[in-house]
């Protein structure tokens, strides 16, 4: 939506942009597309491979449910941080981002618990591809989550420097988009594994 | 809200000014760790040329083996060392390494990074009217990831067990087991590491190209006014963004299979009677993953060349491009089809014949947009006021290869005929014409055409003509006989044919091909001389040497960082107003408003003048977002 006011004043020197999306935000979305493609490839490889038979069946460890709950809560706290930033409540932003980071770390730890539960069930990384795929999916997602936690810490530092507020939301918005994306990605992987394990 | 947005606009604007001041950098910031898209484009070009030379030399070495199997190659020992056997012959495993590295280098390092990397970087900001890429830093990273990848790939050429030798498609189990071939040891590890870095570089570049095209176009540069080069680079970047991550996944799983003992692609393998522990893997799965990238990769290589050709042909025919919208539509259609035809590389893997028929049908549909493009090129040339510049000749050469190589694609796309032709020299002939040579000619056309913008000097046209004719005739002499050799059943990647009676009767033809290949490579040195000589000693260029319409020719001869010294020009018309009836000159640049050309305006363009005067007033535009 554009608002045109004609007059003699010249306030905006920049030429009108044809599309008004922030380039960095747009770049982030494109990055998320590449991540989607990585997991699309891995999960479709999973289905194709499973269709060929010789596939070890096993139950998913209960700790995966814990992981999922943790990451879902972290999305809520992330949103809380964003809302607080919009209303310039920086103390709450700091708190919310700290909790989100902590939940992110907790998620990573719970994934390690998942791995040790799998090992206890005699499902190893080396062995039938059904197990190997599980480790790869959770591992690659985990790596992305590490990058998400680093992003959160960067936002936290900017908050302490008063660079995050209602007039300067780009960074925290990008962080929130990425974090929710990682959350949705995990839920997708979890549901996928529940159906096809 | 509005205030906040104005604040943001000011911030980005002052950013632009900071870059201006930064321009007076030292050697390191200007030539090495530069964030100027023009210099990064040149970095890609020079690196690409170096790789093209290496890739070409490798091909000549294996052509020597194929054309002259009895030749004494002792004289190559100073370069190849132990790869020349005691009898003075090329080592058979090194032959496999040569074809593998030739393919990898040409497809990825020359025709992807050297072509897209050069021209997307160089032309996108210049032709859409932007000061630089959306993120100069990411752009710099993109080049340096590519450079790191190049270094690793280059090192792999010199290790004792040799570089990867399983073919550029690296099918497991061949590529997964060092016992299979020497190159699958350290060479393959380095190949995978280099390609992982290459993918990161491509993705960083691609994200930047797409973001820039969508968000940083100058005022008036709507999508329907974009030059076809930009359309091609844009769609190429989208294809890369969707397909390279899939190759990354495949490479990741292969790395786990090779180094961690998993069994994604390995199963039931016996070496010397001993069974490997790997159970339950599927080598076909790798082929699916690989070709899901591999086929779009063909268009990543080809589309930029087609875009460059559109621009060069329209400019030098002094005619508007025929069917602009059909051109854009066919690029889009090709891009979509490229993702749903990958299994035509796998017709003989034992896939369901019904599935094969579907992939055959989809494959043959690609002929439709391709034919649209060819028709439009020819219709643009038809009755044009043609100027045969070297760039124009190379573009016409591209159209020729696109036709002759494209026709054989129709045969190969048939799942039944493919049983005979699969993995023969017919395939080699097909893709070297339609993808290899065509894209290579697009690259050369681009260099000849935009050299004045890159270095402020002209390349020598006479040397360009000699280079063109030698290369054009040479390419046909190399690849045309290969069709016959292929139909006769010569398989690709065979070290020697002399042991097979049935294959012996084409020895003379193979010899002919090899001689032609050596001559064609030799002709490239004319180009190299012309390129580097003209860079320093060439005739000084004028601002618009080809009398072209696009925005890059409105910059100074040697544009600084930021491209335009003053305000960024605004765009009022499409880029193909050549030889417009009753216009004063035979070209009208995109920056000329319709109000200045009343004599040549069409009725609907006269209606647009009113809109122009509206927007020429001091208008306050506030983005409400």
Describe the structure.
The complex is a heterodimer of chains A (197) and B (625). Chain A is mainly alpha-helical and 197 residues long. Chain A has five helices and one strand. Chain A has helices at 23-51, 63-86, 90-120, 129-160, 170-196, and one strand at residues 2-6. Chain B has a single domain (2-267, 277-537), classed as Cytochrome c oxidase-like, subunit I domain (Cytochrome C Oxidase, Chain A). Chain B is 63% helix and 1% strand. Chain B has a two-stranded antiparallel sheet with strand order 1-2. In chain B, β1 and β2 form a beta hairpin. Chains A and B meet through β1, α1 and α4 of A and α1, α7, α8, α9 and β3 of B. β1 of chain A pairs antiparallel with β3 of chain B.
CATH superfamily of chain A: Cytochrome c oxidase, subunit III, four-helix bundle
Shape of chain A: elongated
Number of strands of chain A: 1
> Looking across the biggest beta sheet of chain B, what order are the strands in?
1-2
Proportion of beta-strand residues of chain A: under 5%
State the end-to-end distance of chain B: 8 Å
What's the CATH C level of chain B? Mainly Alpha
CATH architecture of chain B: Up-down Bundle
Rough shape of chain B? globular
H/E element string of chain A? EHHHHH
Q: From the helix content, strand content and strand pairing of chain A, which structural class follows? A: mainly alpha
Number of distinct beta strands of chain B: 3
Query: Helix coverage percent of residues of chain A?
Result: over 70%
Give, in order, the helices and strands of chain B: HHHHHHHHEEHHHHHHHHHHE
CATH topology of chain B: Cytochrome C Oxidase, Chain A
**Major β-sheet annotation of chain A:** none
Mean pLDDT across the residues of chain A is 88
CATH topology of chain A: Four Helix Bundle (Hemerythrin (Met), subunit A)
Q: Give the DSSP E fraction of chain B (strand runs of 2 or more residues).
A: under 5%
Tally the helices of chain B.
18
């Amino acid at each position: 939506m554009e608002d045109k006011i004609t007059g003699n004043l010249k306030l905006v020197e920049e030429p009108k942009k044809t599309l008004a999306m922030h380039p960095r935000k747009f770049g982030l979305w494109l990055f998320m597309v590449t991540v989607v493609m990585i997991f699309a490839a891995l999960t479709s490889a999973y289905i194709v491979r499973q269709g060929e038979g010789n596939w070890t069946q096993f139950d998913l460890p209960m700790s995966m449910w814990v992981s999922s709950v943790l990451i879902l809560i972290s999305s809520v706290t992330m949103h809380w941080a964003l809302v607080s930033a919009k209303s310039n409540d920086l103390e709450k932003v700091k708190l919310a981002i700290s909790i989100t980071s902590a939940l992110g770390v907790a998620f990573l730890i719970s994934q390690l618990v998942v791995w040790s539960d799998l090992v206890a069930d005699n499902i190893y990384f080396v062995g039938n591809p059904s197990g190997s795929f599980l480790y790869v999916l959770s591992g690659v997602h985990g790596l992305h989550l590490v990058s998400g936690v680093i992003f959160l810490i960067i936002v936290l530092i900017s908050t302490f420097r008063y660079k995050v507020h209602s007039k300067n939301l780009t960074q925290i918005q990008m962080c929130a988009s990425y974090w929710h994306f990682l959350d949705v990605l995990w839920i997708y992987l979890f549901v996928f594994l529940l159906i096809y394990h | 809200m509005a205030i906040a947005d104005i604040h943001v606009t000011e911030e980005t604007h002052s950013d632009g000014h900071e870059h201006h001041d930064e321009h007076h950098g030292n050697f390191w910031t200007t030539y090495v760790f530069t964030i100027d898209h023009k210099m990064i484009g040149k970095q890609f070009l020079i690196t690409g040329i170096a790789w093209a030379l290496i890739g070409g030399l490798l091909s000549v070495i294996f052509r020597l083996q194929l054309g002259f199997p009895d030749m004494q190659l002792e004289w190559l020992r100073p370069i190849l060392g132990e790869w020349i056997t005691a009898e003075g012959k090329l080592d058979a495993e090194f032959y496999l390494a040569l074809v593998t590295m030739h393919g990898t280098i040409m497809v990825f390092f020359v025709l992807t990074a050297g072509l897209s990397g050069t021209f997307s970087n160089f032309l996108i900001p210049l032709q859409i009217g932007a000061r630089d890429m959306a993120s100069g830093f990411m752009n710099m990273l993109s080049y340096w990831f590519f450079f790191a990848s190049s270094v690793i790939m280059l090192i792999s050429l010199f290790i004792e067990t040799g570089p990867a030798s399983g073919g550029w498609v690296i099918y497991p189990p061949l590529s997964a087991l060092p016992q299979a071939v020497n190159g699958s040891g350290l060479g393959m590890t380095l190949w995978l590491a280099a390609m992982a870095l290459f993918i990161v570089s491509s993705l960083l570049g691609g994200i930047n190209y797409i973001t820039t095209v969508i968000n940083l176009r100058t005022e008036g540069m709507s999508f329907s006014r974009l030059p076809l080069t930009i359309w091609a680079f844009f769609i190429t970047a989208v294809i890369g963004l969707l397909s390279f991550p899939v190759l990354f996944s495949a490479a990741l799983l292969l790395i786990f299979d090779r180094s961690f003992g998993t069994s994604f692609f390995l199963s039931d393998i016996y070496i010397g009677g001993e069974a490997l522990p790997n159970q339950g893997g599927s080598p076909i799965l790798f082929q699916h993953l690989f070709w899901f990238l591999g086929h779009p990769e063909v268009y990543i290589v080809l589309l930029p060349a087609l875009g460059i050709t559109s621009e060069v042909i329209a400019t030098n025919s002094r005619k508007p491009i025929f069917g602009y919208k059909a051109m854009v539509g066919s690029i889009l259609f090709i891009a979509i089809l490229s993702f749903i035809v990958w299994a035509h590389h796998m017709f003989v893997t034992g896939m369901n014949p019904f599935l094969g028929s579907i992939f055959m049908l989809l494959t043959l549909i690609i002929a439709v947009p391709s034919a649209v493009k060819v028709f439009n090129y020819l219709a643009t040339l038809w009755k044009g006021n043609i100027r045969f510049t070297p760039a124009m000749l190379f573009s016409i050469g591209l159209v020729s290869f696109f036709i002759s190589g494209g026709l054989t694609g129709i045969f190969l796309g048939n799942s039944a005929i493919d049983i005979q032709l699969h993995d023969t020299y017919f395939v080699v002939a097909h893709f070297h014409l339609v993808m290899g040579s065509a894209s290579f000619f697009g690259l050369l056309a681009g260099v000849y055409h935009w050299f004045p913008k890159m270095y402020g000097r002209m390349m020598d046209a006479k040397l360009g003509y000699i280079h063109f004719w030698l290369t054009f005739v040479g390419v046909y002499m190399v690849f045309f006989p290969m069709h016959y050799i292929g139909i006769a059943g010569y398989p690709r990647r065979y070290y020697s044919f002399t042991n097979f009676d049935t294959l012996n009767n084409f020895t003379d033809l193979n010899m002919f091909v090899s001689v032609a290949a050596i001559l064609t490579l030799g002709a490239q040195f004319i180009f190299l001389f012309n390129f580097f000589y003209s860079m320093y000693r060439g005739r000084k260029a004028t601002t618009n040497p080809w009398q072209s319409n696009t925005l890059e020719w409105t910059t100074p001869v040697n544009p600084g960082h930021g491209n335009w010294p003053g305000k960024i020009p605004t765009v009022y018309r499409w880029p193909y107003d050549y030889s417009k009836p009753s216009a004063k000159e035979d070209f009208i640049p995109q920056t000329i408003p319709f109000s200045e050309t009343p004599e040549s305006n069409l009725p609907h363009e006269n209606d647009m003048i009113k809109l122009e005067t509206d927007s020429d007033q001091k208008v306050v535009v506030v983005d409400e977002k």
